[in-house]
Amino acid sequence: MFVKICSIHTNEIITSGSSTHWNVQAEYYAYIEIFGSLHLQGHKTGQRLQHGDVLIGRKFRLVNTTAHPVTVRGIIFQWGAASEEWERSLIVHSQNSFAIQATSIVAPLFAENRISTEVLPETERQLYSLLQSLHVEKENVLTPAKRPIGKIDSRLITVNRYIRNNYMRPLTLQYLADLVRSNPVYLCNSYSKVFRVSPIKYLQNLKMAKAQEWLVSTDFTIGVIAEQLGYISQSQFGDLFKRYFGITPTQYRRNKGINGYGNSIGEFGEVNCEFKH
C-alpha cells in the first residue's frame, strides 16, 4: 500500500466563464486546492467550492461562474489502497481538520523551486498516513476517522483559523501566542507537531500562494502586492519570494505571462475548456 506523487501543478488559472474537466486513469487521483469560488460538476448534486476547500477525485468538472480568474493548484497521485468509496469526487471543506493537515503536508511541494530528494518521499509518506486515517460519509464529505489519534488542543485550531483569515496582516509568533494565551515556544512546537508545519511557515505559504495568484491574474505592482500581504517593504517581499521560488516576483510574472494565464491546466489529465457566451 502506498501513495506515489506523479505530477505537481502550481498556479493553474481557470478564467472567468470557463470550465475544466479532469479525468485521470484508474488508481490515480487529483488533489486540488481551491483559491476562489468554483462550481463542481460530477458530484451527485453539484456543489459550490469556496476558497480553502480541497477536492480529491478522478472525474469532475470545475466551472468558474465568477467575473474573475480563479487559481487552483494540486497534485496527481497514485494511491494503492483506495477503495470503491473513492470513485466519486470528495469535497473537503476548509474548516475540516483533513483540509488543514493536507494543505500543510503538501505545502513544501509548492513552496520550493526545486523539489529535493527528501521532500517528495516524506510528503508521500505523510499523505498516505493521512488518507488512511479517514473514512467517507454518505454526503461524500471527508471527515476524520471515528477513532482519531489523540486530541488536538482547540487553541491550535483557533490559531490555524486565525492565520487563514488574517494572513495578509503582519502577524508574529508572539501575537498568535498572545491571541490564545499561550507560550510562543509551546505554540510553535505543538502546532508544528499537529500540522507538520510551523505557524509562521504556514503563514508565509499562504502569503506566497496569494502572491503567485496576484502576479498572474492582476496588474498590481510589486509594491502594492507587498503592501497588501503585510510586508514592511517591497524588498522584504522580493527577498522572501525569491527564497521560495528561486526567481524574483518580476521574473515570475514575466515567465507566467508568456502564454497568458500560467501553466497548462491540461497537465492534470483530460481537460476540455469551454467558454460561455
Structural summary, described in words:
By secondary structure, the protein is of the alpha+beta class. The protein has 2 domains: 3-148, Jelly Rolls (Sandwich), CATH 2.60.120.280; 154-256, Homeodomain-like (Arc Repressor Mutant, subunit A), CATH 1.10.10. Helix content is 39%, strand content 23%. It has 9 helices and 12 strands. It has helices at 97-111, 119-132, 154-166, 173-179, 184-195, 199-217, 222-228, 234-245, 249-256, and strands at 3-14, 18-23, 28-35, 38-41, 47-49, 54-57, 59-63, 70-79, 90-92, 134-136, 142-144, 274-275. It has a 5-stranded antiparallel sheet, covered by helices on one side. Strands 5-4-7-2-12 form a 5-stranded antiparallel sheet, with no helix packed on it. Strands 10-11 form a two-stranded antiparallel sheet. A hairpin with a 5-residue loop joins β4 (38-41) and β5. α1 packs antiparallel against α2, α1 (97-111) crosses α6 and α3 (154-166) runs parallel beside α6 (199-217). The longest helix has 19 residues, at 199-217. The radius of gyration is 18 Å and the shape is globular. The termini are far apart. Mean pLDDT is 77; it is low at 135-150 and 258-277. GO terms for molecular function: DNA-binding transcription factor activity; sequence-specific DNA binding. It comes from Paenibacillus hemerocallicola.
